From TrEMBL:
<keyword id="KW-0378">Hydrolase</keyword>
<keyword id="KW-0788">Thiol protease</keyword>
<dbReference type="InterPro" id="IPR041382">
    <property type="entry name" value="SH3_16"/>
</dbReference>
<comment type="similarity">
    <text>Belongs to the peptidase C40 family.</text>
</comment>
<dbReference type="Pfam" id="PF18348">
    <property type="entry name" value="SH3_16"/>
</dbReference>
<dbReference type="GO" id="GO:0006508">
    <property type="term" value="P:proteolysis"/>
</dbReference>
<protein>
    <submittedName>
        <fullName>NlpC/P60 family protein</fullName>
    </submittedName>
</protein>
<feature type="domain" description="NlpC/P60">
    <location>
        <begin position="122"/>
        <end position="247"/>
    </location>
</feature>
<dbReference type="Pfam" id="PF00877">
    <property type="entry name" value="NLPC_P60"/>
</dbReference>
<dbReference type="InterPro" id="IPR000064">
    <property type="entry name" value="NLP_P60_dom"/>
</dbReference>
<dbReference type="GO" id="GO:0008234">
    <property type="term" value="F:cysteine-type peptidase activity"/>
</dbReference>
<dbReference type="InterPro" id="IPR051794">
    <property type="entry name" value="PG_Endopeptidase_C40"/>
</dbReference>
<keyword id="KW-0645">Protease</keyword>
<dbReference type="InterPro" id="IPR038765">
    <property type="entry name" value="Papain-like_cys_pep_sf"/>
</dbReference>
Amino acid sequence: MSKCQIIRPVVDLLDQPEGARQRQLIWGEQVTVKDKQGGWAQIVAAKDGYPGYVPSAALAAAVQTTHWVSAVATHVYTRPDFKSPDLHSLSFGSQVQLLSQGERFSETPDGFIPTPHLSPLELHLKDPVAVAELFLGTPYLWGGNSRLGIDCSGLVQASLLACGLPCPGDSGPQERALGNYAPPNGGNYRRGDLLFWKGHVALVRDCETLVHANAFHMAVALEPLQPAIDRILAQGDGAVTAHKRLL
C-alpha cells in the first residue's frame, strides 16, 4: 500500500472500475492505494475511510499540503496575475502546498492561487451552517462533493470537516456517528442541528429554516423547516428518522 493524493480538481470515486459514482474526491485529498490494475487504483480516502476506485492518472505521490481552499471556489493561474491564463478551478476544501505566500497571490507547485482564498490547514471554521451557506445555489449532484455539484451528505461532510469535526461520507453512517444528543419531542430546533430521513440529511439554519442539498430544488437551498418536513413526507420519502445535536 502507498500514500497518494488527488491531482484533479474533482474525481469520481467509483464502486468498481468503470462503475457507478459513490462519492467524489477533490484536489489534494490524501488516499491510501491498495492496488493498481489496468489504469485503475483501488483506494481508501483518508478523510473518512471511504473505499472505491479512481483512475490511476488522477493520483500522484503524496506531498505535505500546507493550506486549504476556504473560498467556495478559486482558480489556479499560470502567473501571479488575475489576467494570466487559469489552469484549474478548485473547490472549497481542496488542499495545496504553498511554496511562497504573497499579499495577493501564493505560489504552489501547480500555479498561483489568490492568497485571500487560502487558509492554513490547522485553521478551522466555527459554524458548519455558515459553511453550508457558501454552497447555496450549487447544483445537486448525487454523490457530489464539490462546488460543481454536491448532494446532501456531501454538503454536511464539507461543512463539518471545515470546522474540524470528523464526518462520514454518506447520510446513513452520518446518522449513526454524529451527535450524542437528540432533542426531545421532535422540536427545540437550534442552528447546527442535523435532521435525518432515510437517505437524506439537512442542517438546521434556525428554528424555522433548513439548508440542504436536495433533488426537489436540484440545488443547495434554504427551505422553511416544517414545510420541508411535510413535503418530504407527502412525496413518499418518510418521516424524520433522527434529530441530532453536535456538542
